[in-house]
Amino acid sequence: MQIIPYSCQDIDDEDISAVVDILKSPMLTQGPTVSAFENLTSEYVGASYAVATNSATSALHIACLALGVSAGDLVWTTAISFVASANCAIYCGADIDFVDINLQTNNMCPFALEQKLEEAQKIGKLPKVIIPVHMCGSPANIKRINELSKIFKFKIIEDASHAFGASISDRKVGNCEFSDITIFSFHPVKMITTGEGGMAVTNDKEAYKALKSLRTHGIVGETNEMLPTPDHEIWNYQQIGLGYNYRLTDIQAALGISQIAKINRFVSIRNSIANNYKENLRSDYFSFQLVPSSNLSSYHLFTIQTTKERQVPLYRELRKKGILVNLHYIPIYRHPFYERLGFKQGYCPNAEEYFQKILSIPISTKLTESQQSYIIKILNSTQT
Ligand SMILES: *Cc1c(COP(=O)(O)O)cnc(C)c1O
Known about the structure:
Layout: H1 13-23, H2 32-45, E1 49-53, H3 56-66, E2 74-78, H4 84-91, E3 95-99, H5 110-122, E4 129-131, H6 142-152, E5 155-159, E6 167-168, E7 171-172, E8 181-185, E9 198-202, H7 205-215, E10 219-220, E11 238-239, H8 250-260, H9 263-280, E12 287-288, E13 295-296, E14 302-305, H10 308-320, H11 336-340, H12 349-355, E15 358-361, H13 369-381
Parallel strand pairs: 2-3, 2-4, 4-5, 5-8
Antiparallel strand pairs: 1-9, 6-7, 6-13, 8-9, 10-11, 12-14, 14-15
Helix pairs in contact: 1-8, 2-8, 3-4, 3-7, 5-6
This protein binds pyridoxal-5'-phosphate (PLP).
Residues 55-57, 81-82, 84-85, 133, 159, 161-162, 185, 187, 198 line the site of pyridoxal-5'-phosphate (PLP).
């Protein structure tokens, strides 16, 4: 029986030799290759600055810190995402809260957000930062969220872990036109990979400087960033705040540079697979995430919506047949850690409904046409 994972990386000989070249070079970490990868990324997405990190989770953490999130602050994210979208606020000592999703787009619902903001304003508990997630690679309504940010005075971090290569009206996600910082993930299941890795991009010079120093222990190296020091002492760097070791290696960055060259091809392959699924899966059995026609999804994930009755049997049946369907995601607040913070089942009704109807089916640049046909055949014929 063939086993088909829900996602997998796409590494070729070029990628491998790029990594081997660095292993033979004098510098293995945080050298010229990391800078080159940062420049290529900011150029590709159309942002002014980029800071590479060892994961998107690290990037989210220092993005929150760079925007001043600390104990007592409030951060909101969407109820349906990977836990990292919320954990970053907890790392900073802030309180987290969740906005319900729209059942069609599966992204943070702008109406639910507006209503929640109005209520929060009344009790004086507005969030400092909101973290929308571009679910499956389909951009959230960031323009509307940006309009609300002007009224209710919050900052925006786009969690674009799924959405490298996606665009809104032909403008790449990550250009930060409607946000303060955007973060990307280069985990192997994501759009391109560096093994582990992430990136924060921004147009805000102050945020950029903060991100850079937070990534490396809170250290700065430029004389104009240091506090004055005695002339007879050697101060070639200074720790000006508390930061972390969140560095990406040159080994990983070399892989990133080699991978980024393929991103448009990867997005286009994933879009053809998504179209094939949408055209050939039974529309009386399944419905799909709505991607507004002005947007291009990167299709990191492909989700199908079935019924509450069919979801669990279908999940078990497909796994038995080697099709490793998955579930993205359990509402974050349902996890025991978040339940202990006081969140209750049913808190975001749409998110709960989504959770009980959704399945992720395999999508990757390596998924062959015959595998796609096999998956479609099994899904269309499985009576549960
Ligand atoms: C994968 C993912 C992350 C974390 O990415 P890492 O690079 O593994 O730290 C954060 N947010 C979302 C929505 C993700 O899917």
